[in-house]
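Researcher: I'm preparing a figure for a lab meeting and need a structural model of a single chain. I don't have an experimental structure, so a prediction will have to do for now. The sequence is pasted below. Please return the structure as tokens so I can convert it later.
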Amino acid sequence: MSENQNLLAEQRRALILDEVRRRGGVRVNELTRRLNVSDMTVRRDLDALARQGMVEKVHGGAVPVVEASTHEPGFEAKSALELTAKEDIARTAAAMAVPGSAIALSGGTTTYALAQRLLDVPDLTVVTNSVRVADVFHSAQRPGGAGGARTGAATVVLTGGVRTPSDSLVGPVADQAIASLHFDVLFLGVHGISVEAGLSTPNLAEAETNRRFVQSARRVVVVADHTKWGTVGLSSFAALEQVDTFVTDAGLSAAAREEIEEHVPGLLVAGRIADDVS
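Model: Understood. Here is the structure written out token by token.
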């Protein structure tokens, strides 16, 4: 880019989206100063984000899109969001997996990032209702390459069920499979989290499946970036008090961290906490 060699369009738009969500809105003139680009470049970025349904354009800037509680984005749409935050969270959460233990991974793009970090943890038994997560482990187990299949590769149990837009398997088949098992740790991705609604999702069937996951786990670890805080889906499936550890990123505000610590025994903030986050 001629105007700003240090930022690609995708990086600029990710920064803009984060500002919109964190502050509840941005103005074009503020973004031009912060990003050191022209008004035209910022407006093009806002146009692109608006076309993707990420922001709503208003006179002089943009505000967050207010989504219906039943709106469920697809896996690909969510994969492009908060990439750095998800990697930070995955790295921190992976350190909690004990070799030889039985763990569960729910569906979601953050648990998908975590799965890739868990490939080096030996002798795991992994139960998941995520097609994407299962494929991460199955791909690692396939013979091929210089070393062939990995030694101590995870044993993976895919629950079966009906596929959701986010590539999770839900419904009676998944629920029955999960209810018959017991996990040392559940790593749980969420659509939304708040004090009032607890953990929630826009998908009623997924709420029931996640409820079974929580009931079958000795320890519940929520992995969610800061944009999930304050979001409320159609159906709640667990209270904050049922969470043992909440792993999030440095974008979560200090006020939100204080609220969470009042209800959750463990809060881990992955990445550096920026001085200007409040």
